[in-house]
Design brief:
Largest sheet: 8 strands, parallel, barrel
Number of helices: 12
Strand content: 15-25%
Strand order of the largest sheet: 1-2-3-4-7-8-9-12
Order of helices and strands: EHEHEHEHHEEEHEHEEHHHEHEH
Shape: globular
Oligomer: single chain
Mean pLDDT: 94
CATH topology: TIM Barrel
Structural class: alpha/beta
Number of strands: 12
Distance between the termini: 5 Å
CATH architecture: Alpha-Beta Barrel
Number of domains: 1
CATH class: Alpha Beta
Length: about 350
């Protein structure tokens, strides 16, 4: 078994678990993001994800970190960690976004990537005066959008006439440092998301789910037609609760579940596109944390969590994008107690 890559979610909303944790003040600032990513890099994490929203989907009155300015600054503030910025194509013209990404690619010396998100939170789009396309149409829009971005990243001069974009005799210089272009992550649980990932993504980003569901999804996506020469890779989101014993971890899980239940989710749920499969599955896979969170089952003793990570790696996951609460001490606990145990499993395998 090869050793997996570990990453962290930057807490762009303020917190990754319960919004009001007594030992973790809500803080969506750049200063906090910088502190966490520098610690993550020191602890051996190799990637990070900065989700994108214009307004905080949990509560529009709360602070929300802006993704792309933060990504550029974090590229300068770090040395080795991959920086993934989420992007919603409806918010950026592909030419503008391609040039911005090339700038961060240069600042980071090739450590930059994007996570393509076809949008699910309607208020931030509609309040901005941007048409919110139907679910499947958003994926067609993203398909056309990313085709332009990739060609520009490669340094091509393009003329393009599509359904949504019309570009004449344009190239961007210099091209990307990352070759053949910055890595593209893409997630989603709908059929259009899986099909688009198979067509254009380097990494399919799965929400945290039980391992049987993950195996089925990996098998399904791997069977889809893929025009790219290199095989698609798989990453997964998860919220980790690791303790000395399974009983201690379960007690902490129950505590965080109780805290998270006190969060007002009404604004979030009112703004969600009803066709988004991830939110349809909330009842099926209840969890602490976003994007599947604890539904992945990384809750238990250090040995239990390490073994489950090894099982996911055997199933095909090579990157784990993790959430913790309180973030700093729990991230350090994971790096100290769990990562070496996974490494030992890898050596034995």
């Amino acid at each position: 078994m090869s050793e997996p890559r570990y990453g962290i979610w930057i807490p762009v909303y303020g917190n990754c678990g319960a919004m009001n944790h007594p030992n973790e003040p809500r803080d969506a600032s750049y200063a906090r993001a910088k502190s966490l990513i520098q610690l993550a890099e020191a602890y051996g994490f190799t990637t990070t994800l900065i989700a994108e929203h214009i307004i905080n989907p949990r509560n529009a009155e709360l602070d929300q970190l802006e993704t792309w300015t933060a990504a550029a600054a974090l590229a300068e503030a770090t040395n080795s960690i991959e920086i993934i910025a989420a992007v919603k194509p409806l918010l950026f013209h592909p030419v503008v976004l391609a040039k911005m990404a090339l700038g961060i690619d240069a600042i980071s010396n090739g450590r930059f990537a994007i996570n393509l998100v076809s949008a699910w939170f309607k208020p931030e789009i509609e309040k901005s005066g941007i048409p919110f396309l139907p679910h499947d149409d958003r994926y067609q829009y993203s398909r056309e959008w990313i085709s332009i971005v990739k060609r520009l990243w490669r340094g091509e001069r393009i003329n393009f006439e599509g359904e949504y974009f019309h570009i004449t005799d344009l190239n961007l210089s210099p091209p990307a440092i990352a070759q053949p272009y910055p890595r593209v992550y893409l997630g989603g649980e709908s059929d259009p998301a899986k099909q688009l990932a198979a067509e254009i993504a380097d990494v399919f980003f799965l929400n945290g789910r039980p391992i049987d569901v993950i195996r089925e999804t990996i098998a399904e996506v791997s069977r889809l037609p893929r025009p790219l020469a290199r095989p698609i890779r798989f990453a997964m989101s998860a919220f980790v609760i690791a303790r000395s014993t399974d009983e201690e971890a379960q007690a902490e899980f129950q505590y965080l579940t109780t805290l998270a239940a006190q969060d007002d989710r009404s604004e979030l749920m009112k703004g969600v596109d009803a066709e988004v499969v991830m939110f349809k599955n909330l009842v099926k896979y209840p969890a602490v944390g976003s994007n599947g969170g604890t539904a992945a089952g990384l809750v238990g003793s250090y040995d239990t969590v390490a073994t489950r990570i090894a099982d996911f790696v055997a199933a095909g996951i090579d990157t784990f994008m993790l959430q913790f609460q309180p973030f700093t001490p729990e991230m350090q606990r994971f790096a100290t107690e769990v990562m070496p145990r996974v490494r030992s499993v890898a050596l034995v395998s």
